[in-house]
Prior knowledge:
Blueprint: E1 5-14, E2 17-27, E3 32-36, H1 43-51, E4 56-63, E5 66-67, H2 73-79, E6 81-84, H3 96-102, H4 107-111, H5 113-123, H6 125-129, H7 140-153, E7 158-162, H8 170-185, E8 190-193, H9 197-201, E9 206-211, E10 214-219, H10 221-225, H11 228-235
Parallel strand pairs: 3-8, 3-9, 6-7, 7-8
Antiparallel strand pairs: 1-2, 1-4, 4-5, 9-10
Helix pairs in contact: 3-7
Amino acid sequence: MSDDLVISDLAAGYGHQSVLHDLTLRAQAGRLTAIIGPNGHGKTTLLRAISGLIAVRTGEIRLGADRISGLPAEAVVARGIVHVPQGDLLFPDMTVLENLRMGAFLPAAARQEKTVLEEVYTLLPKLRDRENQIARTLSGGERRMVGIGRGLMASGRVLMLDEPSLGLAPIVIEQIYEVIAGLRRAGRSILLVEENAMRAAAIADQVHLLDHGTLNWSGTGAELSGRPELLETYLGV
């Protein structure tokens, strides 16, 4: 059974404000799908709608055979959607290990916690060295890695990353994207939201340009590189 994430004719927003309009896309299982576009045009809203953090007004979201639109956020997580939001959002006075273990709170994830923790430490070896360190004392890049590691601990079917490079120094961004590229090579299903279009396009299997809540363009990273008018008009590149 396919674990594609399929979004059909989606509309969502906040209060009386509509942000997403008739949005349709497919994020294929085992692939990295990137959502790019200017700030304030609906990228984070899309992830929140998928996660059940905001209501879907019309349309449908399915993960494989499961319809997840309309479910509460905790039920969406239980179906296999893992959302790593912008910023750190760690428990600042807990250790790295305690923060990671919070990702395995569902029974299915808890049963394989030790195995998955070892996989996280293999992927992010610095976290093993820091496992007893209090989260608030970590560097920005280390906190971001803990956030990604905590998401992986949930053993989900789709990992959604919202602006993982936000606010980080260039050398740290390189490290974070090496991790994401490793996840892609391992066949993880990833939905990546990123303002840095070329950074995302370099590792994505499919790229979607979101403009004013609708998809303006879709293609591969190489195809995006060959569309300078899109890069200049929408992304300031």
